[in-house]
Write a structure and sequence with these properties.
Elements: E1 2-7, E2 19-23, E3 32-41, E4 51-52, H1 54-70, E5 76-78, E6 92-102, E7 105-112, H2 125-135, E8 141-148, E9 155-156, E10 162-170, H3 182-216, H4 221-240
Parallel strand pairs: 4-9
Antiparallel strand pairs: 1-8, 2-3, 3-7, 5-6, 6-7, 8-10
Helix pairs in contact: 2-3, 3-4
């Protein structure tokens, strides 16, 4: 099966407006930012020229995703698409909590994985980026990522089997009038400097150490294992800084 990414926007719609709900917390509970709206459009040609069969999604694809991802609280969405069959928790920006049929489409609801400094609750790097974008009035879209038997076939139905991986949050849905503005890019750079670069630099250093250890202790298995363990412990310490 091949990876297939599609924006949930019919070809005759310029942008998929999602509702953003901010729930004011009680003193002992964190603030919540929720995304609600159209997640998957069916029975119409989308902006990429593909058509998702509603009956197939309603009877097979979506129920499977609800059972295997939403109910176990593992329905994480990434900020923009990754070309992978797996969702990387490090890149998650929201968690999908609901997905249900509405007409011949599917509407959903997600909670943004943002932090709450008031209670000392950390967010994911991309969750904080997404929260900043939404709080500054930025627009987002929802876009499916799945595995399909034949990606050249524009019809996704029982004759072209499909596995829903997630419904990612995208900043630039591929529909006319959809764009990333300067405020979003500036906010993203700031949040990466605050979160992502720290982890990325630590991992780069970890990779270099692994290569050096493999060369230096190629014949001594015991020393190599001890050095690898020390390197891994240093990597964990660097992430926590």
């Amino acid at each position: 099966m091949k990876i297939l990414c599609d924006t949930a926007i019919p070809s005759d719609v310029t942008f998929n407006d999602l509702s953003i709900i901010c729930e004011q917390a009680t003193p002992d509970k964190p603030n919540k930012i929720k995304i609600k709206g159209l997640y998957i459009a069916c029975n119409c040609k989308n902006v990429n020229g593909r058509r998702y069969d509603f009956d197939y999604f309603n009877e097979d694809v979506v129920p499977d995703y609800i059972e295997t991802a939403i109910k176990p609280h593992q329905a994480y969405a990434e900020l923009n698409h990754a070309q992978s069959y797996n969702v990387n928790p490090k890149d998650a920006c929201d968690i999908i909590t609901e997905l249900h049929a509405s007409g011949t489409n599917f509407e959903g609801e997600s909670e943004v994985l943002n932090g709450d400094t008031r209670l000392g609750i950390p967010g994911t790097p991309n969750g904080d980026i997404l929260a900043a974008i939404l709080m500054h009035g930025g627009k987002i879209g929802k876009s499916t990522r799945g595995a399909v038997d034949n990606p050249k076939n524009p019809i996704i139905d029982r004759n072209n089997q499909y596995k829903l991986i997630t419904v990612d949050t995208v900043l630039n849905p591929s529909g006319p009038g959809c764009y990333i503005n300067d405020v979003i890019l500036e906010e993203k750079d700031f949040m990466i400097n605050e979160h992502g670069i720290i982890v990325e630099c630590a991992y780069n250093q970890f990779e270099k150490e692994q290569e050096q250890i493999a060369r230096q202790h190629i014949l001594d298995t015991k020393k190599r294992q001890e050095a690898l363990l020390d390197s891994f412990n240093n990597f964990l310490k660097n992430i926590k800084k």
